[in-house]
């Protein structure tokens, strides 16, 4: 997803940079938050099958960070993520794909009672080719904005990258 478009998502470069900034900020916070990296695990022959380059994490985990391998959109489904994250924990969500894993994981976290923070510019998806209603293409930016609005209405807190310095501090 981080390859140059059209293979990667349209915002691949900016999202990669923003993810790096978020991870750097989280890793330098005192006390540090629990950092959990979720890795999509596909089937044999998929670009994200275990061991393939598309399966590797973008940023190598550091000691103490947790790696969860998921096989469904919702990172809580079929994993031990629900055992690791307390139901009263605040969760910062970032990554790919907005209209699949981000939406499903944020929705599941809300249903568990978690407070969920989603950072604009730190999640992305692909342009969508429309099959129905005359065809055409829905740009990724429009899809991302629609999902953000849907999740915000459901209770997710939307933050901007400018809010990053205060996200991992206790006040």
From TrEMBL:
Domain Isochorismatase-like, first and last residues per copy: 10-127
SUPFAM superfamilies given in the database record: Isochorismatase-like hydrolases (SSF52499)
Stored Pfam families: Isochorismatase (PF00857)
Residue intervals passing through the bilayer: none
InterPro entries: Isochorismatase-like_dom (IPR000868), Isochorismatase-like_hydrls (IPR050272), Isochorismatase-like_sf (IPR036380)
Keyword annotations of the record: Hydrolase
Domain of life, source organism: Eukaryota
One MF annotation (Gene Ontology) recorded for this entry: hydrolase activity
PANTHER family: ISOCHORISMATASE HYDROLASE, PEROXYUREIDOACRYLATE/UREIDOACRYLATE AMIDOHYDROLASE-RELATED
Family of this protein: Belongs to the isochorismatase family.
Record-given protein name: Isochorismatase-like domain-containing protein
């Amino acid at each position: 997803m981080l390859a140059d478009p059209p293979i990667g998502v349209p915002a691949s470069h900016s999202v990669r940079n923003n993810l790096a900034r978020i991870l750097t900020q989280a890793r330098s916070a005192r006390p540090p938050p629990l950092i959990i990296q979720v890795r999509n695990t596909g089937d044999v022959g998929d670009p994200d099958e275990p061991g393939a380059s598309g399966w590797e994490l973008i940023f190598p985990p550091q000691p103490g960070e947790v790696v969860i391998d998921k096989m469904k959109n919702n990172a809580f489904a079929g994993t031990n993520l629900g055992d690791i994250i307390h139901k009263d924990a605040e969760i910062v969500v970032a990554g790919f794909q907005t209209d699949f894993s981000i939406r499903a994981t944020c929705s599941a976290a809300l249903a568990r009672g978690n407070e969920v923070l989603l950072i604009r510019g730190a999640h992305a998806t692909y342009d969508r080719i429309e099959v129905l209603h005359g065809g055409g293409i829905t740009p990724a930016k429009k899809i991302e904005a629609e999902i953000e609005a849907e999740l915000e209405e459901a209770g997710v807190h939307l933050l901007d990258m400018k809010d990053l310095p205060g996200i991992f501090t206790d006040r």
